[in-house]
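Issue 218. Parser rejects a valid record. Input:
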Amino acid sequence: MDETSALYTYSLLTLPHKKEVDQLTSRLLERQRKVSSLTAYKVLSVELAAGLGHSYYDNETDYETVYFDQDIQHDFASWVSGDSMEPKYPNGSVALMKQTGFDYDGAVYALMWNGKTYIKKVYREAEGLRLESINPDYEDLFAPYEDQPTIVGIVVGHFLPIEV
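Output the parser choked on:
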């Protein structure tokens, strides 16, 4: 429908219906402005376990688009699942990573180990990697080097998506 047809149809409405149209168009315009000021993030469907680990599958085309009000530089994003990294990384938040190897002890990394993905503070030890949770209710995990744990990236940010 072009603008002329829309205006003609609007002119045929009763006053109460015109008010409904006015309210609807105001809400739609507000939503449109809000979305245009947000940054879109493509979040991989692979979840990073903040807990006991999730199965990993390599399908980077399977993602969901979410929004946040800041543009944070990153290489990829994934969902945080579980409460072992709370309160800093809440369950259901989005973790943003830069694709790197191991940089330094105590940083928070996304990693793969035995077919599962994790988000943990990582410490390099003689026989493997110690994976530490922020939540004190969880014990450390130990990933021996013989299991070939792989650092996927360092976590550079996180957020809870804004609903649009």
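Fixed in the parser; the record now loads. The beta strands are 39-49, 54-55, 63-68, 76-81, 94-98, 108-113, 116-124, 128-132, 141-144, 150-159.
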